[in-house]
């Protein structure tokens, strides 16, 4: 960070009426952050796959830092909270998909046309009629039901991912979550699904979506996490090949995709072909862990409450090579966020601050497998569930350009959003809600599990103004580097942006830790409903 910039920032801070302490408090320049990223995203960590030696090495590094910085262990075994998994993968050599039309079998090419999803137990053999169900959503609050009046019992439904425009973004995201979708599908007796990604909101191209399709998927082990049986087939279909499904139906995929692009209503109708599937799956057991550390507060009463700062440390591991590189380093996703937690935790040693509430730092595992580490942590928190007053989640905040605009997911849902706005604006950073609701980012990272336990949460990312040159750069990053081996240490990074981001995170933590009232959901927030869910599991003392 240049001296000139520091001066400008100081002037801005003066203008916003922050305390003297906050004015002088640009404690981060991004250099220590980058040093941690360099360790965590090094080839030696082998992409930090859940359950791998590489992730264990990365965790050992985090623990080493925590011990050095005087944080206290708050897991179940020291800093560690063990988590057990079941892995599933498809044996493609013994699996196949085909469309049956007028008795004729049209084989589909796995990888080019479609691939199997493996998060449920696929039936070894299945043949069923197909029905197109639009977005495949049921949203009671909006009186919206794509299945109303359709006969889908015992059939495979085809849907286009997305949602109609009149459904608010948060609600649309919630009902597109696997859990809510599963509930609706079971209710209607649906046998299986073929999901077509919405070409208007695909983060990465099909070729990369399908590249690692034979790698294991994971599920939490244990009866409480077992999803009720039901779905016997889960397929993702290449939008570029989707006309095959629609020919003879009187509709074209091009027409449907054009409607979905603008979030317009979609028709519902039976498809001509039937689907035939043979699926062979292999299952194994696997162990990994979350890491939990506490920085105790000092207020006699409030110290028993916790402000949570979370980030996932896992990534995709070693996979299919792209340009000769097999290591999916995950430098931005999410060594960057994990490093923020290390760095912010350390900053309280170098620059002590009196904190009334305690801070809880949580590095979860298996985010990339469907937010599983955070699902386990929020179901079995190592502090009482109700004592967690907020979750600030850091995942792929993308300091690839100067930080001028901060996107706050959950901005309008709780007063944690208001506090995030105040803190960011005090640093001259503009705040905006999600500019791309179609990407469903509110449910796509670990904050969502905290939200489902009634805990107000935000996730903040470096962002852009719609239509700006920056928007193109972020989009190109997703297309080329997101979940690719090139999300590594050889990419342009703006360390000053990371430093400013860390400052905003730290200021927000301090504000929430020290204010009299704990963060609260807005009266009209949809997510408020989770607050009154009974506390299900007794906390285990650490
Ligand atoms: Zn990711």
Number of helices: 15
Rough shape? globular
Distance between the termini: 40 Å
Task: Tell me the Rg in angstroms.
Answer: 23 Å
Average pLDDT rating: 91
What's the total count of β strands? 22
Bound molecules: zinc ion
Task: Please estimate the helix content.
Answer: 25-40%
What attributes does this structure have?
10-stranded mixed sheet; binds zinc ion; 15 helices; 29% helix; alpha/beta; globular; 24% strand; 542 residues; disordered C terminus
Blueprint (SSEs and pairs):
Elements: H1 3-15, H2 20-23, H3 31-40, H4 53-68, E1 72-73, E2 80-90, E3 96-101, E4 104-108, E5 114-116, E6 125-132, E7 138-139, E8 144-145, E9 156-160, H5 169-175, H6 178-187, E10 192-196, H7 206-211, E11 217-220, E12 233-237, H8 243-246, H9 253-261, E13 269-278, E14 281-295, E15 306-312, E16 317-322, E17 325-328, H10 331-350, E18 358-364, H11 372-379, E19 388-393, E20 405-409, H12 415-426, E21 430-432, H13 447-451, E22 457-463, H14 469-480, H15 495-514
Helix pairs in contact: 3-10, 12-15
Bound molecules: zinc ion (ZN).
Zinc ion is lined by residues 333, 368, 483.
């Amino acid at each position: 960070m240049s001296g000139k910039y520091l001066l400008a920032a100081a002037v801005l801070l003066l203008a916003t009426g922050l305390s003297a302490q906050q004015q002088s408090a640009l404690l981060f320049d991004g250099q220590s952050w980058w040093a941690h990223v360099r360790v965590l995203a090094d080839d030696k960590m082998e992409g930090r796959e859940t359950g791998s030696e590489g992730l264990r090495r990365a965790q050992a590094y985090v623990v080493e830092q925590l011990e050095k910085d005087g944080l206290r262990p708050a897991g179940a075994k020291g800093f560690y909270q063990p988590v057990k998994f079941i892995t599933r993968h498809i044996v493609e050599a013994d699996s196949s998909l085909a469309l049956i039309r007028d008795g004729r079998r049209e084989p589909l090419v796995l990888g080019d046309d479609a691939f199997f999803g493996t998060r449920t137990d696929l039936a070894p053999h299945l043949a069923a009629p197909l029905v197109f169900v639009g977005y495949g959503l049921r949203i009671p609050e909006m009186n919206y039901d794509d299945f109303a009046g359709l006969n889908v019992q015992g059939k495979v439904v085809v849907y286009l991912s997305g949602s109609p425009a009149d459904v608010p973004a948060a609600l649309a995201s919630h009902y597109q979550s696997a859990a809510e979708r599963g509930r609706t599908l079971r209710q209607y007796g649906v046998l299986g699904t073929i999901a077509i990604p919405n070409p208007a909101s695909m983060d990465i191209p099909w070729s990369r979506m399908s590249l690692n399709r034979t790698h294991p998927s994971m599920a939490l082990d244990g009866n409480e996490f077992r999803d009720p049986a039901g779905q016997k087939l889960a397929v993702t279909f290449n939008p570029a090949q989707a006309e095959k499904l629609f020919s003879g139906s009187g509709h074209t995929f091009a027409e449907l995709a054009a409607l979905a692009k603008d979030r317009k209503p979609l028709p519902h109708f039976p498809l001509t072909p039937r689907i035939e599937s043979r699926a062979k799956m292999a299952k194994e057991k696997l162990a990994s862990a979350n890491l939990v550390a506490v920085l105790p507060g000092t207020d006699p009463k409030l110290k028993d409450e916790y402000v949570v700062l979370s980030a996932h440390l896992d990534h995709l591991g070693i996979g299919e090579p792209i340009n000769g590189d097999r290591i999916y380093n995950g430098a931005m996703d999410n060594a960057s966020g994990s490093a923020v937690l290390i760095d912010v935790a350390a900053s309280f040693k170098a620059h002590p601050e009196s904190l009334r509430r305690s801070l809880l730092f949580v590095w979860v595992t298996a985010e990339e497998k469907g937010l599983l580490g955070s699902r386990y942590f929020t179901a079995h928190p190592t502090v009482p569930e109700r004592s967690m007053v907020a979750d600030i989640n850091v995942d792929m905040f993308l300091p690839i350009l100067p930080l001028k605009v901060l996107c706050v997911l959950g901005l309008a849902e709780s007063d944690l959003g208001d506090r995030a706005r105040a803190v960011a604006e005090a640093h001259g950073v503009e705040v905006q809600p999600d500019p791309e609701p179609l990407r469903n980012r509110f449910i796509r990272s670990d904050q969502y599990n905290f939200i489902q336990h009634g805990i107000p949460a935000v996730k903040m990312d470096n962002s852009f103004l719609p239509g700006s040159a920056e928007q193109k750069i972020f989009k190109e990053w997703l297309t080329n580097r997101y979940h690719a081996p090139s999300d590594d240490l050889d990419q342009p990074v703006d360390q000053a942006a990371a430093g400013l981001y860390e400052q905003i995170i730290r200021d927000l933590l301090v504000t929430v830790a020290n204010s009299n009232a704990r963060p609260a959901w807005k009266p009209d927030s949809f997510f408020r409903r989770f607050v009154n869910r009974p506390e299900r599991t007794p906390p285990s003392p650490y």
